[in-house]
Write a structure and sequence with these properties.
Elements lengths: L12 H12 L16 H16 L3 E4 L5 E5 L8 E7 L12 H16 L8 E6 L7 H7 L17 H7 L17 E9 L4 H5 L3 E7 L1 E10 L3 E2 L11 H16 L6 E3 L3 E4 L5 E2 L2 E10 L2 H22 L2 E10 L2 E2 L2 H13 L4 E6 L4 H5 L4 E7 L15 H21 L1
Parallel strand pairs: 3-4, 3-5, 5-16, 6-15
Antiparallel strand pairs: 1-2, 2-4, 6-14, 6-16, 7-12, 7-13, 8-11, 9-12, 10-12
Helix pairs in contact: 1-3, 1-11, 3-11, 7-8, 9-11
Length: 413
C-alpha cells in the first residue's frame, strides 16, 4: 500500500500563525511573555481550545490516563499503526509563543490541509499534546512506560499532589500504566520545534534536520577542605575548598572545549561557611554534560576524574563526583533524517544536520518507536523567555517540511 505524494499541498501560513497568536493570548503576561504552567487554569483553557480545534477537524479526541490529549485524523486503513506528531502547550513561568505550542499547532495545520482537500493518508495521523513537558515530562514518560512509580515524586512545588493534577486535566494516576503505547500503535513520531539555540541562525539555514537528542548526565561535585581563619592561616598551609572548586570549574570547561559536539557546564555552586574572613571549607557544585554519544560522555568523564584527582592532591582537599541524572541519547533513524532532508529539497529550503541539546518529548517517544525532529531558527537563540521569536515565514516553512515529511513516511512503510 503506497500513498500518493501530494507535492502540491502547502500549509496555510496565515492560518497557522493566527493560531499561534491566538493560543499565546492564554496566559499572556503584561510584558508579552506567556505563563501556562501545567495543570493551571491557563493550561486547562489552552487544552480546551486545542481540543475544540481538533473536533472542528472531525478528529477523534481522547485524553489518556497521563492527561495527554490525542487527536486522531483517520486514515484509509484503520488497522495500520498511526504516524504521530505534536509537542506540548505548557510553558515555563515566563515563556514565549513558540516553545512546544508551535509543534502542536503545526500538526493541527497539517490535518487542516488534508481535511480541506478531502485527503486521507493510508495511515491515521495523531496529534499529541503531551502533559507537563516543562517539569516532569509525565505525559511522554507515561507513553514510553518510564513513569516513576512514586506519586510523591510528581508533587508540585505548591504541594498539590499528582492525583489532583491529573484529575484537573482528565487523567488518572491510578491507571497511568494504561497510557503506555508501542510501535504497534505508532509507526513513527516527528516533532517540529523551535531550535532554542543559535546554530541555524548563525549558519543562515532555514531548517535543522535533527540527528538525535543528546544524552545528559548530571552530577553533584563536592569539595571538602578545611575552614580556618582567613587572616592567620598562611597561604601554603591552607586547604581551601573554593580554590580547588575554581580549578574544577576550569577543568570542566577544558573538557567541554575538547574536539567534539559535547557541552559541559557548572551552573550552580554553594560555598560554606561563606564568610568574608573564613577560608572556605566546603563547596558543592553541579555538573551538566551532554553529547549524542554515551561512549564519548564516558570518555570525557574519565578525563575529568583524572583532573579531579590531580586537583585534590595539589590543593590538599577531597573531591567526590556523585551522579544525579542519567539520560541516554535518543538517535534519529537515518531514513527519518532522509525524509526530512528530502522534504527540504522539494521545498527549496536550506538545511543542516545538528543535534538537539535540549530535552523534548520526542526523547521519550524514541523508546517506543522511530523518532524524528525538525528545527526552525530561534532569533538570537533565545527561548524560555518572553523574547523568544521565530518569524511567521520560518514557522510556515517548518510546517511545510512537517507536512511533506509525514506524507513521505506514509509511503515509506
Amino acid at each position: 500500500m503506497k500513498s500518493i505524494i501530494y507535492n502540491h499541498l502547502l500549509i496555510n501560513g496565515d492560518r497557522l500563525n493566527q493560531s499561534i497568536a491566538r493560543l499565546a493570548q492564554i496566559g499572556k503576561l503584561p510584558k508579552g511573555g506567556v505563563k501556562r504552567i501545567a495543570y493551571s487554569t491557563e493550561d486547562i483553557e489552552a487544552r480546551n481550545l486545542v481540543m475544540h480545534w481538533m473536533k472542528e477537524l472531525q478528529m477523534q479526541v481522547r485524553i489518556d490516563a497521563a492527561g495527554n490529549i490525542i487527536g486522531k485524523y483517520s486514515g484509509k486503513y484503520p488497522d495500520l499503526p498511526a504516524i504521530a506528531t505534536g509537542s506540548h502547550i505548557d510553558t515555563v513561568p515566563c515563556g514565549g509563543h513558540y516553545d512546544g505550542a508551535y509543534g502542536v499547532l503545526a500538526g493541527l495545520e497539517v490535518v487542516r490541509v488534508l481535511h480541506e482537500n478531502q485527503l486521507k493518508l493510508d495511515r491515521a495521523i495523531e496529534v499529541i499534546v503531551f502533559t507537563d513537558e516543562e517539569s516532569t515530562m509525565i505525559g511522554s514518560k507515561a507513553i514510553s512506560g518510564r513513569v516513576i512509580n512514586n506519586p510523591g515524586y510528581y508533587r508540585r512545588p505548591d504541594g498539590t499532589d499528582i492525583y489532583t493534577c491529573l484529575e484537573r486535566v482528565g487523567g488518572n494516576w491510578d491507571y497511568i500504566a494504561q497510557a503506555r503505547r508501542s510501535s504497534q500503535d505508532i509507526a513513527a513520531f516527528v516533532e517540529l520545534h523551535v531550535e532554542q539555540g543559535p546554530v541555524l541562525e548563525s549558519m543562515h539555514k532555514q531548517i535543522g534536520v535533527v540527528e538525535g537528542i543528546v544524552g545528559q548526565r548530571r552530577f553533584k561535585i563536592t569539595v571538602q577542605g578545611s575552614a580556618n581563619h582567613a587572616g592567620t592561616t598562611p597561604m601554603q598551609m591552607r586547604c581551601d575548598a573554593l580554590v580547588a572548586a575554581a580549578q574544577v570549574v576550569l577543568a570542566v570547561n577544558k573538557i567541554g572545549n575538547t574536539p567534539g559536539q559535547q557541552v559541559a557546564t557548572v551552573g550552580k555552586m554553594q560555598v560554606s561557611p561563606n564568610a568574608a574572613n573564613v577560608i572556605p571549607g566546603w563547596v558543592e557544585m553541579s555538573l551538566d554534560i551532554r553529547d549524542l554519544s554515551s561512549l564519548h560522555i564516558d570518555s570525557l568523564l574519565e578525563k575529568l576524574r583524572t583532573h579531579l584527582e590531580g586537583i585534590a592532591v595539589a590543593t590538599k582537599t577531597q573531591i567526590s563526583l556523585n551522579s544525579c541524572l542519567h539520560n541516554e541519547p535518543a538517535l534519529v533513524e537515518p531514513y527519518l533524517q532522509k525524509a526530512i532532508a528530502n522534504s527540504c529539497q522539494h521545498l527549496n529550503l536550506t538545511y543542516t544536520h545538528l543535534p538537539s541539546r535540549a530535552s523534548h518529548d520526542a526523547q521519550e517517544m524514541a523508546q517506543i518507536t522511530d523518532m524524528g525532529m525538525i528545527f526552525v531558527p530561534s532569533e538570537m537563540g533565545v527561548s524560555h523567555d518572553s523574547g523568544e521569536y521565530t518569524s511567521p515565514e520560518q514557522c510556515t516553512q517548518g510546517a511545510n517540511v512537517l507536512l511533506q515529511t509525514l506524507i513521505q513516511l506514509d509511503s515509506h512503510y
